[in-house]
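Long-time lurker, first post. I've been practising inverse folding by hand and with some scripts of my own, and I keep getting stuck on stretches where the structure tokens seem ambiguous. Below is the full token string for one chain I'm working on. Before anyone asks, I'm not after the true native sequence, just a reasonable design that respects the backbone. If someone could post their per-position residues I'd love to compare against what I wrote down in my notebook.
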């Protein structure tokens, strides 16, 4: 009997060990206006996301700017309060934990911020910034904190003497290494890396990515790697989830996504990856129109106004579910025309008309 899959496309084998299970997660932001600053609209940043992350794997989360990637990551580590849905971490529902109840989770889940310049306090020495988490989580000995900071700085490729310097004395790549050290000093199980290399030069990007992969293997980390660059995600991920306007459009293994994308949006993203060969032919797919507003998303499939294969009466009416395509049960896409959902929905639409 073959392996089964969960609703998020994660193979459910005997060795399966989910660390994170996200169910129907929604995050909305109110928009206020008028003389009395009343709520006049709602930004639908994350709209019913389901995602499972296995222990020890790296899941890449990609999509255009503004699609909700960062909001999903920050909600996962509870820097933002979810509007609805469930977040289960290592078997515990952490969705509604407050105050001191969250402290054990804070130690086990850390985030690496996108901007290495503004994520560090310019008034504090980097050693103080890195050791702050240790102090908050009960490491009272100053000598022990100093020793662990020294070990972590060396682990990320810096020197022990750097602990006494200030952020402005480092390059962008060095600052991001400091951000890595700060996130890893508490030995977390989960790290959310929010576009950790997007602000860096290409050569420095490679150094930081290779370092992250080495540390993941050495420290047995589980990583949600958020990026808008599919070429970067291919280098570090085991599975890749493509996000569009607050929803997961497609999720599967890295190999299948890059070799056989199902969703038209994924195809367009892959066609935009630069090819370092001017003579190699390209089949660039240019999406028409603009990304719809998350305040007023279109009915049906959110991608249907820009989709080259959308069918009127189907794609702009029914919301597609994440369902398997034609190449296996662990390759899911939210597309009426590319998954097993299409025939039934076509019948339903015909009956409705």
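-- Answer (accepted) --
I ran through it position by position. Result:
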């Amino acid at each position: 009997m073959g392996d089964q899959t969960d609703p998020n496309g994660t193979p459910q084998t005997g060795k399966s060990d989910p660390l994170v299970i996200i169910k129907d997660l929604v995050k909305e932001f109110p928009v206020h206006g008028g003389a009395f600053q009343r709520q006049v609209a709602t930004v639908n940043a994350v709209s019913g996301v389901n995602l499972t992350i296995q222990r020890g794997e790296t899941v890449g989360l990609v999509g255009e700017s503004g699609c909700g990637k960062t909001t999903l990551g920050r909600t996962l580590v509870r820097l933002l309060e979810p509007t609805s849905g469930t977040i289960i971490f290592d078997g515990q529902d952490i969705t509604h934990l407050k105050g001191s109840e969250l402290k054990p989770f804070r130690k086990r889940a850390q985030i690496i911020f996108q901007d290495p310049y503004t994520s560090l306090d310019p008034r504090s020495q980097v050693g103080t910034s890195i050791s702050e988490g240790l102090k908050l989580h009960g490491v009272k000995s100053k000598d022990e904190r100093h020793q662990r900071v020294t070990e972590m700085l060396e682990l990320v490729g810096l020197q022990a003497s750097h602990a006494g310097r200030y952020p402005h004395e480092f390059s962008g790549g060095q600052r991001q290494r400091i951000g890595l050290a700060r996130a890893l000093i508490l030995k977390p199980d989960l790290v959310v890396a929010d576009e950790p290399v997007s602000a860096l030069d290409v050569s420095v990007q490679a150094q930081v990515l290779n370092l992250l992969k080495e540390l993941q293997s050495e420290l047995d980390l589980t990583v949600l790697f958020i990026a808008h660059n599919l070429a970067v995600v291919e280098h570090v991920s085991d599975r890749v989830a493509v996000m569009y306007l607050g929803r997961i459009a497609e999720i599967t293994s890295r190999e299948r996504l890059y070799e056989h994308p199902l969703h038209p949006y994924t195809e367009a993203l892959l066609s935009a990856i630069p090819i370092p060969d001017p003579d190699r032919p390209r089949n660039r797919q240019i999406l028409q129109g603009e990304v719809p507003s998350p305040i007023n998303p279109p009915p049906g499939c959110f991608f249907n106004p820009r989709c080259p294969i959308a069918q009127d009466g189907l794609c702009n009416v029914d919301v597609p579910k994440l369902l398997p395509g034609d190449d296996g049960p662990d390759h899911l896409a939210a597309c009426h025309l590319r998954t097993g959902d299409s025939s039934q929905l076509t019948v339903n639409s015909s009956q409705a008309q």
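A couple of notes from the structure itself: The first strand starts at residue 4 and ends at 5. The CA atoms of residues 125 and 166 lie 5 Å apart. Happy to go over any region you disagree with.
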